[in-house]
Amino acid sequence: MERVAVKICGLKTIADIEAVAAAGAAYAGLNFFPRSPRYVTPDQARLLALAAPPGLAKVALTVD
């Protein structure tokens, strides 16, 4: 069976990061669009990224 790489976006808490990692996702999406209800500040994103286990890639969502 082929393994599919999954990205879950809109993470806001360390519990979100832990749940995504436990579920086996390959990517964790952090939202930097201020008008979104899932927006995180750069400082929040740093804390979330540091809490992510090795191997869980962090992805930034930005809007031009």
Description:
The protein has 64 residues and is an alpha/beta fold. Helices cover 31% and strands 19% of the residues. It contains two helices and three strands, in the order E-H-E-H-E. It is globular.
In short:
The chain is of the alpha/beta class and 64 residues long.
Low-confidence stretches: none
- Tell me the fraction of residues in β-strands, as a range: 15-25%
Helix percent reads 25-40%
- Which structural class do you get from the secondary structure elements? alpha/beta
> Ends: how far apart?
38 Å
Number of helices: 2
| Major beta-sheet overview | 3 strands, parallel
Categorize the overall geometry.
Answer: globular
Q: What is the helix/strand order?
A: EHEHE
Oligomeric nature of the chains: single chain
User: What is the count of β-strands?
Assistant: 3
| Computed CA radius of gyration, to the nearest angstrom | 12 Å
Strand order of the largest sheet: 1-2-3
Mean pLDDT: 92
Descriptive keywords:
3 strands, alpha/beta, 2 helices, 64 residues, globular, 19% strand, three-stranded parallel sheet
Q: How do the helices and strands line up, and which of them pair or pack?
A:
Blueprint: E1 7-8, H1 14-23, E2 27-31, H2 42-51, E3 57-61
Parallel strand pairs: 1-2, 2-3
